[in-house]
Amino acid sequence: MNLPDRFKHANWQLILAAPIAAGILHICATLAAPYLTAASAYSRLAPALPVNRMQVLNPFTPGAEPLPFLSPDARYAMCRFDASNGPVTVAAILPPDPGWMLAVISPQGDNVYAAASTPGRPTLISLVLVPSEEHFLGVTPEARGIARDTQPPVAIAATQGVVVVRGPDKGLSYRSEVEADLKRARCSARSF
Amino acid sequence: MDGREPGTSWWSLSVFDDRGELISNAAQRYAFTSQSIALRPDGSFAVALARDARPGNWLPTGGAGRLALVFTTLDPSAPLLAKPAEDQRPLPEIRRVQCR
Questions:
Q1: Cβ atoms B1, B97 nearer than 8 A
Q2: Among A103, A50, A108, residue whose Cα is nearest residue A79
């Protein structure tokens, strides 16, 4: 069979379908990569963190970094939360210094919530992490007849993840002060 | 490495080896931040990445071959790249000045 005959008898539908199928497979694999990775940041952090309790991490030193590329330019407090059995409350006061922030991150690495400090006044943060299927139950303080105090809490639909409070390392003289501020951050489960 | 303050409220420059791990050094120095770096009078800065101590802002690199530099900015008002072009500051520039 010569070349023109080969073209004539080729299964063009199959030839066209193959790259399209490969493209679809490539896109699916790319989108699924965060779920397929063998060792995610969450899976590395989770074993060392208690559930629903804030823990101040030790200063990072060579050989004792919890994650690659995590800079020692800050101290961290982290809470591995699990809201599958009920809401989890998070409270923190970010000092009025630049560089402070609080973030809620899902096991897949999605940043669900983030707040940074503002100059001039402390930033009060009060969050309620509510299971996705139960966020309509009215677990906010107002719905439960409790007056708002300092700042309206924010309800976030997240079942599991990590709360990260980050305080910049301003040098040896300030380390105890930064650590004391981190220790004031709270993360705890509560009943409906 | 030469740069200028990015105009954000807080920033840092950290050095890692090519596996993302901190490079052990006697000075226990792994990063400079906007609060710890020594600026020139015009607001610019220079950081020397070298095995041996250098005057000024020195980040020790030990015996690491390939390096990874992480420049972090925290600005509650807007992302660095979302600012208008006239408000954006260029990223620090890396220059090889000596190779031993």
A1: no
A2: A50
Helices vs. strands in chain A: H and E counts, helices first: 4, 9
Q: Do A73 and B12 touch (CB under 8 A)?
A: yes
ipTM for the complex shown: 0.81
Is B91 in a helix, a strand, or coil?
coil
Whole-number Å distance between alpha carbons of B15 and B58: 11
Q: How far is B6 from chain A (nearest CA, A)?
A: 14
Number of Cβ pairs closer than 8 Å across A and B? 68
Q: Which residues pair with B60 in a beta bridge?
A: B50
Residues whose CB falls within 8 Å of the CB of residue B81, separated by 6 or more in sequence, listed in order: B88
Residue A31 belongs to what H/E stretch? helix A12-36
pLDDT digits (tens, 9 = 90+) for A32-41: 876 776 678 8
Residues of A (1-40) whose Cβ lies below 8 Å from B: none
